[in-house]
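Hello,

Our lab assistant flagged a job as stuck in the queue for most of the afternoon. It eventually completed. Since we weren't sure the result was trustworthy after the delay, we are filing this so someone can double-check. Below is the sequence as submitted and the structure that was eventually returned. Let us know if re-running is recommended.
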Amino acid sequence: MYLYTILIIFVLNVLHCTGDCGCSNLNREKKCKIDEDETPSGKYSRELNDNINAFNTYNMVLINKDTFEMGTNKPVFESDHEGPVRNKTVESFYLDIYEVSNQNFKDFVEKTGYKTEAETYGDSFVFEMILPESERKEYQDVRAVQAPWWIKLKDISWLHPEGPHSTIENKLNHPVIHVSWNDAVKYCEFFNKRLPTEAEWEMACRAGLKQKLYPWGNKLNPKGKQWANIWQGNFPEENTAEDGYQFTSPVDEFPPNKFGLFNMAGNVWEWTQDDWLGDSESKVKKGGSFLCHESYCYRYRCAARSFNTKDTSAGNLGFRCAMDIQP
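-- returned structure --
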């Protein structure tokens, strides 16, 4: 049995950390300009604002009941419990086509006055490359011990994602980040939705493909195209951004899978409902992020998984919502 003790700044007692960009070790309590009306998220926001309480499946896809092969018999990270392959039956459900965007979350906050946990705590984790190189040395004492590229920075939130003075003005169609699992649940509940289960998420990622690595197949760049926003170059020193993005990309960027779902691999990690190894304070996340690279954090595969505590927020953590079939 594997024991994980999760880090905060200065303290880390961990049995498993290598190969996760330090992402699963980020937590608080445990030790260790776009025309928004023309974007999918802008249209999505208007539709939701018109009728929040109704059974509204706009910009969602219906995924029909099916039995699929979950997991893998060729795990990359044994301690993540990626396998074994097992048959899993999932009931019909709806899933958002896109990750929840800054515009979506902005609309939610304007309607509810909701305050995220990053805002309440007054800080969140950011990847060091968002800071000017000349400033990075100032934060030597507030770095994750075994993942020093993560900095716990004050006054970071979904509204100021890349520094206290940054804005989302030109990234309204990018996925919202610095949202905890608790924040994501509140958002989904407001729209009569919920987070997907891990099984739902993985079945949606695979889109009917049997035991393929990625949402589109086994080749990373078929037809010479970029299919996901992931790290390219030598992690964590250089991101060549061959996919066009050093950090997050728009929620409708890159080809969708066969279910019509965008960014099921890379861009931002996505929260799910499920507990991590029976720990109700830690939740499974899926999909990898723009920080993932095969040499270190090869978790943009459909079978891959990781976790964070429920109150964790970071610059590569987001979500999308699911919804039950209504009678």
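-- support follow-up --
The delay was a queue issue, not a problem with the job. The result is valid. The domain at 34-324 is CATH 3.90.1580.10 (paralog of FGE (formylglycine-generating enzyme)). The chain has one domain: 34-324.
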